[in-house]
Amino acid sequence: MPYTSCRRHFPPSIAIVVAYLISQQCSHLLFCSAEVINDINATNPSLYSATNDTACTCDGEKSPIPEAVQWVLVVVLVLFSAMFSGLTLGLMSLDPSGLEIVMANSDDPKLARAAKAIYPVRLRGNLLLCTLLLGNVTVNSGLSIVSANIFSGLIGLLVSTAVITIFGEIIPQAICCRYGLQIGEKTIPLVKVLVMLFYPICKPMSWVLDKALGHEIGTTYSSSEMTKLIEMHVQRGEFHSAAGAAMKGALRYHSVT
Asked: What pTM, to 2 d.p., does this model score?
């Protein structure tokens, strides 16, 4: 118990001995309180002389990792947190059917190449999801621990929360949501390594998800949905109005017959 609480329940001499014995077992519990020092000096001068040399030499147990290294770890962990968070949204938002379409018929060869690189990994959606989420949770937990060593108490909580939210969640998700194909192509080799690294843990979880939810099926559209999709493309200038009308007519003819 704290020294002040111990002193309320026991005479000062007993409280001092209890605090001293505890400090011998736990070296980070030091006599850095003026109240403790004064009581030791007043009631037991020999105990005071035995502990005075080390009583107030430090404030507590320090981390064995140098502070400069801890700051480097914070930066590295924030970058990994941003990567895991961004890829979770960016890659999982890419529909397998959409990737097949881009691979086969894209007018941009760069996008087709990116879709071809991502497709085999994205096809195992639950395994990819488990890998990215496990990595994100692990990195964020490590970031909280390192931040607590640098910033104590409430400040550490606020700093780690702000850093993870802004730089580890909001910004990377906004970027990867917009440029999912391009970023996914650049990071897919690292993602494959992470899938192999976490495979013993994530494979059983993904197997359970596959059995419970079934394998992921790509997005398909009915005739009415395709008609609306064509209208949207015509409005955006992707199709000429005459071509759009011809495609809608073909869909209506097919639905009638």
From this structure: 0.66
